[in-house]
Amino acid sequence: MMKLFGRKNHASHSDEQLMELVGRGETSAFDELYARYSGRLLRYYQRMLGGDGVRAQDLLHDLFLKIVERPELYSPGRRFSTWIFSSAHNACKNEYRSRQRRRPVALEFDDLPADADPLHERIDGANFRTLLLAELEEFEEEHRTTFLLRYQEGFSIREIGEVLGCPEGTVKSRLFYTVRRLAERLRPFDPRHDDTVTTTSMQDAGR
Fold first, then answer.
1. Residue 1 lies inside a defined structural domain of this protein
2. Is pTM, for the whole model, over 0.85?
3. Domain count of the fold of the chain
4. How far is the C-alpha of 19 from the C-alpha of 70, rounded, in Å?
5. Fewer CB within 10 Å, N- or C-terminus of the chain?
6. Residue among 182, 160, 180 nearest 169 (CA)
7. Is the pLDDT confidence value at 106 over 60?
């Protein structure tokens, strides 16, 4: 996407301040927001859409065009990062509907205990990353986006709940379910052959 504006340096401004400036017609603030989020969002779209780079670029363009044309859609006081990823998530949901790719997945856990972390330390990084992303394609989009927001974007449980519009318990349940299933499918990468995978490996694989 071509940068539309840019002269002033807004690097010291928060995302929320930048959106306020965009709403006031301070066009150079847009460039800073684009620089901060375009790469992250493009990667998110590509992972959510099975590597479809062309469609990911289209959705990225549409999202930033919406920011330019209708900045009032952003609610002042809301954290910008959760708002923009919520918008991206909704775009992916619409895309799935058009492709008729939605599949029901029964959740097996109602909650994830605060101290539960079914992950461990030793995984073959490169091969693991490739297979992990392939396995994620088998999950319903709600589980996939929850996983990516947590392990790729580093969002907190509360922030993911805000993005997806669901209770924190549901976020924890989806994460627990997804991590357990991935651990089972990727068990050969665990030298101890148990049901665990490392958090670090999950984060690295999401990059």
1. no
2. no
3. 2
4. 11
5. C
6. 160
7. no
